[in-house]
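Deviations from the work plan: none for this task. Representative record:
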Amino acid sequence: MSCDNMMQMLNDFLSKTLSKNKEGKVKRHLEVCASCRSEYHSLENADNALRQVICEMVADIDVPRRLSERIEEILPQRKSNTLRSRLSILLKTPAVAAALLFMVLAAGFGAYNNYFNPANLQKVAISEKDGGKYSDSAAPPTVDNTGASVQEKEDRLKETQVTQTDTAGNPDEQMRKEQDNTVRAPEITLMGPAQGQPGDTSGILRGQPSAPAGETAPEGLNESQPAEEQKTAFTTFADPGMSGSMDDANDGTLEAAPRHVDFIPAKPDYLPPGSVLVNITRLADVITQDYRTGANYFTVSQSRPIADDSAFVKKPAQVANININGCQGFIEESRPEPGDHVSAAITTLRWRQGDWAFSVSGDLPAEEIIKISESVK
Amino acid sequence: MSDENLILLSQSGDNEAFSQLVRKYSADAYRTAFMVLRDRDEVEDVVQESFLTCYRKIKSFRMESSFKTWLYRIVVNRCYDRLRKLNRENEAIKKMSLYLKNGSEDSYGIESRLDLREIILGLRPEHRLVLTLYYGMDFGVQKVADILGVPVGTVKSRLNSARNMIRRSLTVKPL
């Protein structure tokens, strides 16, 4: 590969749009060509700087606090069919289908075990004696499948013979046992090929293992989404009042953050009374924790600092210096302006601590913002 | 719950499912639009209108793309509509855009007094949008092209010019 067309290739290399084959060629060329290597590092630095600055700019944008609610308010109300639609969607979900199948099998297995429990074998013996009425649906393939040892098997057989003798001459008892088995029969038939009517439970259960066509649509869509897009879905709402989804709750934790960034976000040791963590958001390498304190809010952001101090913190006139845990920081108070959609002043405190850039911002009193900032370690 | 299931539920009339999509994506949609328009009222209008469009058309959404891509495409189109209507760019920004477009070598005065943020804010909105979607929202090149409705080559070209511009800036004023 010549150096002539490397410039475009290097850009594509950074944008990850090269084929594996060309990517390999670029890597091999960079290993042997110092000039192109230098060019690449220069471009890579620019790429990193752009990413950092853009991410900081995006993260610094204050989203109006009631944006979602205001959007929801303008949506026209439609006739909701929530319960039925949720059930039908859930049943199309492979994981739920698998869980239901497992429950059915487990229930069947439990019924099977219960049915061949020594205490119940008596009932089997009676029905077999009565012409084997239930033997087709209830007979086990092998006794070994129940997990019973050979000795247990022999014991059960002996017990069966004994109980068969004991009850054979008692027609009332025999009828009662038969009625018991009649009640039990539907539990066991769920394991076999379902023949239920549309809408009944056995029909729903039957549909799950044999409905791959219905499951392929969501699966295919998942595959069509690029990895980077799925990473961004880390934006979550951990407040059960805002979202009860298990997926959200599981993913929107500080502990889950390292799956998306290469660090565990620091959290403040001090929280004003009544504070609740409601949201954790990731934008590239910036992790933002949103807290609510009654009607107030504050956010804690953490990221790798960019190298340029002047870009790290812009210093307009109203910004004052402040010391946070021995580190130089800047505190700024912005008064609301018409159209800001906020009524309170926003205090923002930024500082750099070790290898990290932090910011705490919110409409709490400045003293509280400082106290929270000092507790972030 | 996955986006696909939320969409299926929304399509069957479940308003709470659509609300979950709103809560999941409204903040990032707002940030993206703000990077282009830089006006809070306009941005909120754009985001509200975009979700309203999604809501009205959700039944015809065939999931040929992800909901996120679809939403961002609507947001971007609304932003462009606003830009065309308002023509808000001032003369200074126009001059900056011209400079960046032509790659003027007479850069000392500009680069010495502007930090990277100001350079980015001086870019033409459609260039800033590419950078926001690619760097800020983690979309890949192909997805950015899908959202903007432009060829992949256009996205790559805008990324390349931005890198080269920043590289020149770093040469003058190292980070």
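The domain at 3-86 of chain B is CATH 1.10.1740.10 (Rna Polymerase Sigma Factor; Chain: A).
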